[in-house]
Every structure is written in structure tokens, then in C-alpha cells.
Amino acid sequence: QVQLVESGGGLVQAGDSLRLSCAASDYFFSDVTMGWFRQAPGKEREFVASISWSGRNTIYADSVKGRFTIARDNAKKSMYLQMNSLKPEDTGVYHCARRSVGVLSTSSVDFSSWGQGTQVTVSS
Fold first, then answer.
1. CA pair distance 120, 100, nearest whole angstrom
2. Distance of CA 88 to the CA centre of its chain
3. Quick one: how many helices (H) and strands (E) in the chain?
4. Could you report the per-residue pLDDT of 15-36, keeping only the tens digit for each?
5. How many Å from the N-terminal Cα to the C-terminal Cα in the chain?
6. Under a CB-based contact definition with an 8 Å cutoff, are residues 83 and 120 in contact?
7. Residue 73 contacts by C-beta under 8 Å, 6 or more apart in sequence?
């Protein structure tokens, strides 16, 4: 059974930084792609970033490119999202997610395991 638990969210001002963490209880963590998605109230879930099994390949949504950095530590079975220069439009519930294969994806339908999410609120 796979369990994902996010942490690190909070209330910040525009321009601030946050670092989100995702702790995985996952025997095959080092073999799978991981990703971050976010969802604002009343809006569709949005892709943020994903990272391949090795961590050597990453992809970002255009809206966060240059500001956010995704990383993973397979020894710790953890994934991270460093968010800098936060904007009010970054506000939402951030979920970590797991894909059962190691190649990158930007589509939520490819991810079969999800955490409960952590709230990120960026004030103007």
C-alpha cells in the first residue's frame, strides 16, 4: 500500500518562499515518477512539476518555471518542491502524486496515488 503525506504549506506574502515535502511509504519509490499538482477552489487540478525515477529528468509548468524546483531523495523516500517568488495565483492545495512507472508525465490521469494535500496561500 502506498501512502503519501505532504507538509510545508502555509500562509505567506507575495515574493516569499516555501518548501513543500512529500514523505512516501512506498516500497518502489525509487522506481517511479513523482509529481506535484495544485488545485485552487472552484478550479481544475493543475500540473506543477514532475520528476523521473532517478531525479535526472524534470518538467515544469510554464507558470512556475524559473521559480519552482522539484527534487527527490530516494534514500529518504521523499520529494520536495522549493517555491520561490510566490505569487497570489500560486495559492491552492498542493498534492504530491505517484505514477507507477518511471517516465515523466504532466497529466493527472497518469498518477494513481495521491496525498491529502497541503494548503499554500499567498497574499498580495
1. 27
2. 17
3. 0, 11
4. 999 999 999 999 999 999 999 9
5. 40
6. yes
7. 79, 80
